[in-house]
From TrEMBL:
Keywords: Decarboxylase, Lyase, NAD. Transmembrane segments: none annotated. Residues 4-238 form the NAD-dependent epimerase/dehydratase domain. The keyword NAD applies. CDD domains: UGD_SDR_e (cd05230). It comes from the Bacteria. This is UDP-glucuronic acid decarboxylase family protein. Its cofactor is NAD(+).
Length: 318
């Protein structure tokens, strides 16, 4: 198979490239590095089946030769990133998605859109099944991301129905693991970075809001199961392991062996109160469910951040 991964130098994209190559596929990663980094795939560059191209997918997405699969993952994903890049986020979710769909149409390729649990907004149904329409504020600060993804879903379905493209939509719930940017602003990289530095760990509000957190290896397995099927989705992929942000912060401090204290900071506007995937569809349709337990996954991620920060420290030594 020959696969194109947009956003291939990002956190999830780099893991997808790695897994596709490991199973023998050829991979072309397209990225403009706005929130990603070529370093995330530097270990793949010697593989003759891998190629990284600097491309802004809102301008054009052209690839020569056959393409069997397009995984469209380009988009800022952290709230801090998309609030700094509001127009770019809307453009990549709309124009970028349409360009990637055109490539799928030209090549007769299977197309998978990276959508998000954010399409459910601040949900009034809990846990969230795919049939729930969501509770999103289009004119709130998060609207730039939520509506970009909701448009992405609609335009994907329209291309499927109008042009017969073999499309799939995955709604990804909060995922963590190695290669998250330590300063990307999301809770887990913040909590780990702060714990390892002995800095106060910043918990928003009273920390009672919950998220359900999934290890990247499990997520990638679910995405590839959907990619290998013909199912249109949307399908939730995430680990139903739900935890409050206060408890998550305390757990990470403990696992990191840190003396950090918790500091309470203001809660962002429209920050969802709860979030948990109903994964019944993924289990029945794809035979998929998360396998890595969260404590093991947090330990592995903390170890990765520790090694990265030691390497960064060493590279600054004279
Ligand atoms: P990330 O920021 O690490 O990766 C996104 C990548 O897309 C980056 O490498 C960035 O440079 C690239 N990109 C952005 N705009 C681009 C453009 N115009 N052209 C080319 N490349 C562009 O984020 P991530 O966590 O790996 O998220 C990847 C995808 O998964 C996103 O679409 C995100 O919305 C979705 N998602 C992620 C999560 C999660 O928990 N990580 C949850 C839900 C959805
Ligand atoms: N959060 C926090 N401290 C931080 C960063 C985030 O308490 O330093 C909170 C944030 O307000 C939200 C939750 O953690 O309630 C998850 O935030 P994240 O940005 O990781 O993901 P998302 O909001 O997109 O689910």
């Amino acid at each position: 198979m020959r696969a194109v991964v947009t956003g291939g130098a990002g956190f999830l994209g780099s893991h997808l490239c790695e897994r596709l190559l490991a199973r023998g596929d050829e991979v072309i990663a397209l990225d403009n590095f706005v929130t990603g980094d070529p370093k995330n795939v530097s270990h793949l560059r010697s593989d003759p089946h891998f190629e990284l191209r600097q491309v802004d997918v809102t301008r054009d997405v052209r690839v020569e030769g056959d393409v069997d699969l397009i995984l469209h993952f380009a988009s800022p994903a952290s709230p801090v990133d998309y609030l700094q890049l509001p127009i770019e986020t809307l453009e990549v979710g709309s124009i970028g998605t349409m360009h990637a769909l055109s490539l799928a149409r030209d090549k007769g390729a299977r197309f998978v859109l990276a959508s998000t649990s954010e399409v459910y907004g601040d949900p009034q149904v809990h846990p969230q099944p795919e049939s729930y329409w969501g509770h999103v504020n289009p004119v709130g600060p998060r609207g730039v991301y939520d509506e970009a993804k909701r448009f992405g879903e609609a335009v994907t379905l329209a291309h499927r129905n109008t042009h017969g493209i073999n499309t799939g939509i995955v709604r990804i719930f909060n995922t963590f693991g190695p290669r998250m940017r330590p300063n990307d602003g999301r809770a887990i990289p913040n909590f780990i970075r702060q714990s390892l530095a002995g800095d106060p760990v910043t918990v928003a509000g009273d920390g009672s809001q919950t998220r359900s957190i999934c290890f990247v290896d499990d997520l990638v397995a679910g995405i590839l199961a959907l990619a290998d099927s013909d199912h249109p989705g949307p399908v939730n992929i995430g680990n139903p392991h739900e935890i409050s942000m206060h408890d998550l912060a305390a757990w990470i401090i403990e696992l990191a062996g840190s003396t950090s204290v918790i500091e309470y900071i203001p809660r962002p506007v429209d920050d969802p109160t709860v979030r948990q995937p109903d994964t019944t569809l993924a289990r029945h349709l794809l035979g998929w469910g998360p396998e890595v337990d969260i404590e093991t996954a947090l330990r592995r991620t903390i170890d990765w951040f520790r090694t990265e920060s030691q390497m960064a420290h060493r590279s600054h030594l004279p």
